[in-house]
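Q: How would the structure tokens look for this protein?
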Amino acid sequence: MPSPSAALPPSPPAAGHHTTGKDSRRALVSSFLGSTVEYYDFLLYAAAAGLVFPKLFFSADMDPTLGTILSFVILLAGYISRPIGGVLFGHFGDKYGRKNMLFITLMMMGLVSVAIGLMPTYAAIGVAAPLLLVFLRVVQGLAVGGEWAGATLMAAEHVKEKNRGFAASIAVTGGPTGSVLATLILGLFAGLPEDDFLSWGWRIPFLLSAALVIIGLYLRYRVTESPDFVEARAAGTVHTGVPILRVLKKYPLSSLYGILAAAGPLFMQALLAVFMVPYVVGTGAVDRQTALMMLTASSFVHIFAIPFFAWLSDKFGRRPVMLAGAGISVALVFPMFAMFNSGSFWLIALAFMVGNPIIQASMYGPIGAFLAEKFDTQDRYTGVSLTFQLGSVLGAGTAPLLATWLIDLDNGRGTDNIAWYFIALIAVGAASVILSKETRGRSAREQTARDDADLASVG
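A: Here is the predicted structure in token form.
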């Protein structure tokens, strides 16, 4: 019996091949730098959440541990709002184009970051301080929710299909690049005396984002619209219906598999960026500035590791590279935590290197293309936003809170609890990669046909 995909008419040739080399390069640079600025702002909050905000935006009479937990709750609020932003900007991005949405998300992010840098503390305005912080964090989440998919698609849709894994990863590397800038600049000011750092030093990195945003906005103004979207619009397949409803109806299994595949590596990303720095500082093994510099160094290597694994996925397929990454993650997570707990400067530095450029990047590198190739052009912005951002909530958003709870369980295992939870996420993610089959070189129409067949067999 012929497969369901065989009954479909042949898929149209991949769009984007007619774009010029100059357009492609401009799109890649714009996506990379714009994403860098977005994640600089977003991760700057994450880096400050465990070091600064518990001391400034909550009552001095509050238990320090509770203040840290509340900071992580506000951090989670930003992750929860990301899927909402993804659906919102995805809706308009799929109906009216990628370019304008990316301009708006970058503008929002910059304004929020500057506002955080100017915020009065709890001592000045009382409970209004943490409430204002929640509001700004939610707006941040909305902006990032629309940013990741848009930047990834603008890069991927401007190149030939055979290079889409690498191209998508260029936008994805904006995450670690933003992390490098955030932790480097915050780390430089963290060397100030404690009173100076808490009174004004931590604010400067947030205010500096204004200059980065201006550069990013200029580059995004000059980039051309996605060739895939232009072609789909000319064919009359956009401006109809509600993209989120089509995604839920046409790609239910693809979306579920994408969410679960992204959760594990995103958990590790947030764990290292938010939880492990105050953790190793709390052990007394290294000081605050040194820990931030260790994270910065690992994030710098991470910038090159992500495209490397994405390039491998262009050569060998998304599925084998991500499954190999899952195996690497399981094998190295316990040694990584053993190094974090060693008390040795060099072993802690090596632990960050193992966690970011190896464990996290090995499964995360191909994720941009892996998700983008699951959806048709007119549904892609919404589909990629929804799957990635829900995976981000499940993985990254809950990481600091879960890690705080797991490490405090009274069973004598400490970080082992976190390692086992991470392994469970990776196992579920690996199963999802296996079930979603291969996406490299395969159209979203074929993926949809397989989803329909799988749903029919379940029914």
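The mean pLDDT is 84.

The domain at 19-224+237-458 is CATH 1.20.1250.20 (Growth Hormone; Chain: A;).

Upvote if useful.
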